[in-house]
DNA polymerase III subunit delta
Amino acid sequence: MEVKAPQLPKQLSKGLHPIYLIHGDETLIVEEALDNIRAAAKKAGHSERIVFDVETGFSWSDFSAEAQALSLFSDKKVIELRLPNARITDKGKAIVEFCDSADGDTVVIIRAPKLDKNTQKQAWYKAVEKSGITTTIWPLKTREVEEWSASYARKQGKSIEYNALQLLLEKTEGNLLATKQELDKLSLAIDESQITLEALVNSIADSARYTIFDLSDNCLKGDLPAVSSIFNHLKAEGAELLSLSGMITKEIRTLNTLINYSQSSSIELAFQKAKVWKNKQGLYRTALQRLDKTKLENLLKAAHSLDMSVKGMSDEVPWQLFYEICLALAGNQQFRMRKTA
């Protein structure tokens, strides 16, 4: 059955299903949903966790064997399948077989980007929908971003004035990872229980010389010296790489979306469809003058490789790969993007 993200915790409290599919491009909300499922599974005794990345060369027989094998460390286990795209080499046969034979000792969690309607008509998706739970993570609307941000602030022990929240979201452009990072900083920097507009302005004024937004803007602008300087500054300060990579990946995806939309409409309409803030449209125009669809697709592949390396799931050096992506996004013509799977 399809369950909306806000209702997932309540559904989990009623008992576990054998299989879950969480798909969407709002990374932070996807992770929250996955964490809820993992916590519920652990509480139910599924203490062993096995992760498969469904990439080029992946063998579905490995998944089937693991799904049928007895757990080495407990009576129950969780198997996570991470799909970088909707292409499944065995057409989902292994997933269908699991759904047909699930015995409750193994819970499967599938994570995927937003799956289109054609994929949702495939047999494996229908099998998951019948035997378990599917949850689609849609991009949050403005009001939902406000509600999420205020809720996260409360979890940090803070309330936030409406005007302060509006300034914060204008600064982060509604990007949840960036908003979370800023709220984490504010919760440490502000002693009072409420984040007021004055306190937020003072915090911004006292913050580091460079921020994630400076890096993002200069990557779009194509200012290579500035990108290199800001990168070194952020790395030296111990900035959170997951947030940095999330912001840069968002910019790459937005540029790719703009190219797709602009093929059938004006760039102005493309900006509207992609929900690009007016103060950033000039930067995106500049970036689109030097980046074509092929380059952006290669950058998306590199961003996926970066995500794997940040999570310790590849041999890449995360900070080095991130630096290379920033340079390529900024238009370094002498730089040659490495091939990624």
Q: What stands out?
A: The longest helix spans residues 241-262. The two ends are 33 Å apart (CA to CA).
